[in-house]
Design brief:
single chain, Rossmann fold, 16% strand, globular
């Protein structure tokens, strides 16, 4: 069988598809499995052991997208896929699924696009407290002859293949900073895809100071997206100032790193703390303890999908009636799902997962 999976757009969403890859390989061990993904998230599934071909497409706009998609459609049709599963359900992905001409094309029952598939499944409401991995598993149940088991994070956790060359790069960079096996490395991701998911800078400063002050061998590395680099620098400077002479040593200026390097760095760490963004789910592909910070999104839908034996906690304010939201307009106007989330609660969660991992 010749199978194509399509998942465009965001990093975290692509991470959530990796349990599906394993399930398909288990159900169809002799199948040829191709995966179509956009360039920004390609590193997540590059080198994945269950993928035979990775098709990476640019995220272009306007006339350039039309030209790119027509060229891609010809390529996909020539590949003669038997089964296509659209894990995205957007206009572009559903059109590409149709363009393959595959006998089985499975996607979500989305108004105006259902006709592009041969079989559809109901799409759970976007804000429903049901995990994204479980929602995607519904598509597998629509495959003709499917006998797979229900999703279980202990069996089918999210995965990202480590890269040996990247591991060596991170080793060299850590040695250059005099960080070795004696130290407790911790990664704090301070960035978010939009303002609705940004925990206040002052809260991050309080968290970083608490983590760094607890043990003189701890080394804290802050990560961020390019648009939040200045915010990360401000948080680091404020934490170093508050910590005093030891601050420069304990809050490390590591420099920039890509997704593969982030994973390699987290895999060497004692702890990862961050909001509901792609790096949180990259971190979930390791065995490193995690504390996730959830504001407008629900942990029930977006918590790290990993072996329950690995210490993982989600911190959120479940009593707020405005959660979850569509992240277009903050009804109260003050982003209270994050601005009122106390640093002490995140610090306590970090201490708990560290004790469990010890």
């Amino acid at each position: 069988m010749n199978i194509l999976l399509i998942r465009l757009r965001l990093i975290g969403d692509v991470v959530f598809t990796t349990p599906v890859l394993r399930a398909l390989r288990r159900e169809f061990p002799r199948a040829r499995l191709a995966y179509l993904v956009e360039r920004e998230a390609a590193a997540v599934v590059k080198g994945h052991p269950d993928i035979d071909e990775l098709i990476v497409v640019p995220r272009t706009r306007g006339l350039a997208r039309v030209v790119d998609d027509l060229r891609l459609a010809r390529r996909l049709r020539a590949a003669r896929f038997d089964l296509v599963i659209d894990l995205h359900g957007g206009p572009r992905s559903s059109w590409l699924a149709r363009a393959t001409g595959a006998a089985q094309r499975i996607g979500y029952d989305v108004e105006g696009r259902s006709w592009l598939y041969t079989k559809t499944v109901p799409r759970a409401r976007d804000l429903r407290p049901r995990h994204s991995v479980v929602n995607q598993w519904d598509l597998l149940s629509a495959i003709e002859g499917w006998h797979g088991q229900p999703p279980d994070p202990k069996i089918d956790a999210v995965t990202m293949a480590p890269d040996q060359e990247t591991e060596k790069v991170i080793d060299r960079r850590l040695r250059a900073l005099d960080i070795d096996s004696r130290h407790e490395l911790m990664v704090v991701h301070v960035s978010a895809g939009n303002p609705f998911r940004r925990w206040p800078e002052a809260a991050f400063v309080r968290l970083v100071c608490a983590l760094a002050a607890d043990n003189n061998l701890r080394r804290i590395i802050l990560s961020s997206g390019p648009s939040d680099k200045e915010a990360a620098d401000r948080i680091a400077r404020a934490a170093r100032t508050e910590l005093g002479p030891e601050g420069t040593l304990r809050v490390v200026d590591f420099g920039d790193f890509n997704l593969a390097e982030l994973r390699a760095l987290v895999a060497r760490s004692r702890l990862f703390v961050g909001g509901d963004t792609g790096p949180l789910h990259i971190a979930a592909t390791t065995r490193t303890p995690i504390v996730g910070i959830f504001g407008p999104t629900l942990s029930a839908r977006s918590a790290p999908w990993r072996d329950p034996a690995v210490p993982t906690e989600s911190v959120e304010l479940p009593e707020l009636p405005c959660r979850p939201c569509e992240q277009r307009v903050c009804e109260p106007g003050d982003f209270r799902c994050l601005t009122t989330l106390k640093p002490d609660d995140v610090i306590s969660a970090a201490e708990r997962v560290l004790r469990r991992s010890a």
